[in-house]
Amino acid sequence: MKLLHDKGLLLRCYTQNIDSLETAAGLPKEATVAAHGNFDGAHCVACSRSHPTSHVKAAVDADELCRCIDCGALVKPDIVFYGEDLPPRFFRLLRKDFPKCDLLIVLGTSLLVYPFAGLIHQVDPKVPRLLINRELVGDFDPKGRDGDALYLGDCDAAVATLAALLGWEQDFKDAVAATAAGPGVASEMGEGGGGGDGSVVKAAAAAAAVAGADSIDAAAVGTL
Question: Rounded to a whole number, what is the distance in angstroms from the first to the last CA of the chain?
């Protein structure tokens, strides 16, 4: 996603990850929609005052309830719990981004949690969709919707293959190296089994779509 952004092709990255992995990889926050929130901050459930994550961590380390420094009510991380509404930004940008989308990449997801899972239906029927996943999910089917491309296999291997087909192999390696500050980050990229010859052909078709696209809307990133 970071490489697509650097190439000026990424319209937006929609993610269910709550660990801010995309930000850690160098993707600007404005390019990411964290549909289920993240741990970048916290807020009071009563007065909505914002609190730094260090405030929450201090309470956890002390084995105490995290309290608001203003009103004393409970403080929770800025993540969406079951039964809570998704952030308004999710719906606002959804209405703005998906009419512009000319290629939808769905990456590493079960597509089981709604309303996020419904994003794959928000693009125009003529817009190609690329699924990179270990298994078929949603309404993706080898004999289904025209314009769908499937890479069934390891996500890391798939994106490395896609980068190579686009002529971005060195750029991809440089991007991986640049984000390899955390343990295991570099070694995790590009490993695992591929999707077979048919998947590579599909990926090649998707690569051609990427090369000709004005922007890409990535619907899901990371293991969900």
Answer: 16
